[in-house]
Amino acid sequence: MKILYITDTHIRGNNPANRIDNLPETLKNKLREINKIAIENKVDYILHGGDFFDTPSPSLAITGEFLEIFREFEAPIYVISGNHDLFGANLSSLPRTLLGFLSRLGFINILNPGVPIYIHKNNVKLQLTGQPYHFDMDRRSVELDYVVKKGACDVAIHMVHGMLSYEKEFPGDVTLIEQITNTEADITLSGHNHLGFGVIEKDDKHFINPGAVVRLSNHKSELTRNINVCLISLESKIDCKLIPLTSALNGTDVLDRTKLEEKAAMELKLEMFASEIKNVADMERMNVKNIIDEVVEKLGESTEVRKEALKRISIVEEKFSFRDGWD
Ligand SMILES: [Mn+2]
């Protein structure tokens, strides 16, 4: 049995601000190449680690253009929903999303949490489980999202749309591979972390994130990384290898670098802000703007940084304004 794993395609009809090529056309070429790789390698199934779409309800015109390419795919697709596939990153909204709609049509297969699927093909019995994104991903017990039991099967594969990593390389919620080595899954596939970490083997288990199929941000590492998919062979033993997409253009040809340095400096300052805010005691009883002012004073930051922090907080406040008890 052969499987091709891809993740974070973020299908969209327009360019993010920092892209200088035509992202939808580049993405279409990548998807055509992915299908070619699948056919040439006689792949039985394609697994997708989430963020299939960039928004939960993209236009039918855009979706149609991409689905014509997916219609050429010969192998069935199994997918978990990522935060971008859902309204408000809320799993209960899945039936109202386009991804949910495609699943109802039988165009793709969505894996639901806690519901294993068993596939028997070419003398291999595969157990497939998937954990879509949810609000508490990488915050609640890792056992609940990353650790699975292996039932009566030859190989167990678990997919998670969460920030799995081999080391803590950036701020925010992360789950480390070393925290989940007690999983009984032979292969754990993750998405969400766009930079990926490739294939890591630990205690006879494989942990894989080939990285996102698209480059959305102009993060420095996005400029230099390969755009990979992962071919998994379950013939006599488990064999996983990354295949770089030749249709992917060079990072320097698709990402605008002029704002890179400026942005990196701003991001660093915002990260310092976030950690300072976390350190402020009794923050629930304080007005968030007061906290920012306190941090500004403490770090001696510019008004620009303060303005940006306030802007971001207002966006979050607006997003959550419907929730009771939010102030
Ligand atoms: Mn993503």
From TrEMBL:
Molecular function as annotated in GO: hydrolase activity
Calcineurin-like phosphoesterase domain span: 1-194
Pfam families for the chain: Metallophos
InterPro entries registered for this protein in UniProt: Calcineurin-like_PHP, DNA_Repair-Maintenance_Comp, Metallo-depent_PP-like
Protein name stated in the entry: Calcineurin-like phosphoesterase domain-containing protein
Organism: Candidatus Syntrophocurvum alkaliphilum
